Amino acid sequence: MNQAVDYIIVGAGSAGCVLANRLSENGKYSVCLLEAGPPDSNLWIHIPIGYGRTMFDKHVNWGFYTDPEPNMLGRRIYWPRGKTLGGSSSINGLIYIRGQKQDYDHWADLGNPGWSWDDCLPYFRKLENNDLGPGPTRGTDGPLHASSIRAKHELVEAFIRSAEANGISRTDDFNTGEQEGVGYYQLTTHGGWRCSSAVAYLKPARGRSNLEVVTRAQATRVILQDRRATAVEYRRGDQLRTLRANKEVILCAGALLSPQLLQLSGIGPADLLGEHGIGVVADRPGVGENLQDHLQLRLIYEVTKPITNNDQLRSLWGRARMGLQWLLFRSGPLAIGINQGALFCRVLPESVRPDIQFHLGTLSADLAGAQVHDFSGCTYSVCQLRPESRGHVRIQSPDPLRPPSMQPNYLDAELDRRTAVAAVRFARRLADTEPMKSLMKREYRPGLDARGDDEILHFCREHGATIFHPTGTARMGGRTDPMAVVDHHMKVHGVERLRVVDGSVMPTLVSGNTNVPIIMMAERAAEFILADAARPPIPQEVPH
């Protein structure tokens, strides 16, 4: 292996694979991509429904847990994160969502020029190959597939008609910037296979002589000299190695591990670093703060007909039929996944744009990825789109192999509590509206005892869980913003030749799933990095 390359990318997730492709594309620069997990050779990664198998697989999943959550009855919430090529895009629910126009305009208003919806839209179009065809907001030539669900499902069709009866219009495209509507999700699949960032971006680049991909290589710190990133220290097996960067180090380890690496490297809150005996290179109090996540509230219903995935998965013939559909035609449940029905709407009277999102799942289980129930079941998974609660990620020791402390502070804000209760009430209204009403046999969870606001909120505290979108822990902002970690080109404030490119730099959480927005951000970052590399060096004044 080379001892020095132009660019070191830490983390082969949604962003890291994009950068590995784009930075090596012109052949001018040598690039090394370090990934802590193994190659993405597990077949269940590539079969769309397979995320039920990878949800708890420690070989490809970090399997984190939060600290005990004071607002969630002291529970430690399970946080799966991808640990393989493709990162979380290799184990996620495959939902293709950009968010709302106002999300990005708000980023620009917060002091991040160039991040408005109009600025980001060309990059959303650049990355996608959308089977809805070309349009003012759609792209058809990109590497990431956005595939529509063509097979109609009786439950989803009933869900759509019940939403229409409640005044919500049907739509085929939730990605125009205006989200409100009900319909089927588009998925990051192609031809019955998952289209992760590793498949879309890394696989086509693997044959390039200037790109090296090193798996099972966990970065332990960034080496800094004179406030400049010069190398990355990483562990592979029982060996500790160092790789030098001639140009830049780029952290793409995600909203949990990128702030941990910054803190371990001496960039973060001075008090926290001092507590663990780490020398302060840059006192940035925002590193690890501003943690945001979507809280998932899962209402489970028993269905009157045997039309759910529960029925297929519990039967030997049902499983065989699913397998044959996929093997012969690359179709059926294995090619689609669980969450098919999409709905974005407003539940608070003061909301002027959608404030909640539904994922209607055609199966039910006590936990996402757990054993399905022994009855025909479906899940109304609903989340607040823009929570106000904020948490943090902080190292617990100088040991880089010890996971950091993670405290999301779910339901800490009064708005979040009001939205959670209103969201559950709206889900129940949908379930009680025809034609969905005739398909709902009984409410398994939360159950009839939870009727008042206090009882509903207790259900949210007792059963709420992540919907896998932690972000914001190294947020973008101007140099004068004391809590900003990176500038609008994702360069770390106070340190040269170091960037962070992943969900951690989002100033605020987008209204929906985070995979596609992170890929868009990485496409933009690649242009920033290559533009900087193309600039002639600034002449150094020779002392007399």
UniProtKB/TrEMBL annotation:
All copies of domain Glucose-methanol-choline oxidoreductase N-terminal, residue ranges: 82-105, 254-268
Record keywords: FAD, Flavoprotein
Signal peptide: none
Listed InterPro entries: FAD/NAD-bd_sf (IPR036188), GMC_OxRdtase (IPR012132), GMC_OxRdtase_N (IPR000172), GMC_OxRtase_C (IPR007867)
Entry's transmembrane regions: none
Required co-factors: FAD
Family per similarity comment: Belongs to the GMC oxidoreductase family.
Protein's UniProt name: GMC family oxidoreductase
Organism (species): Castellaniella hirudinis
Phylogenetic placement of the source organism: Bacteria, Pseudomonadati, Pseudomonadota, Betaproteobacteria, Burkholderiales
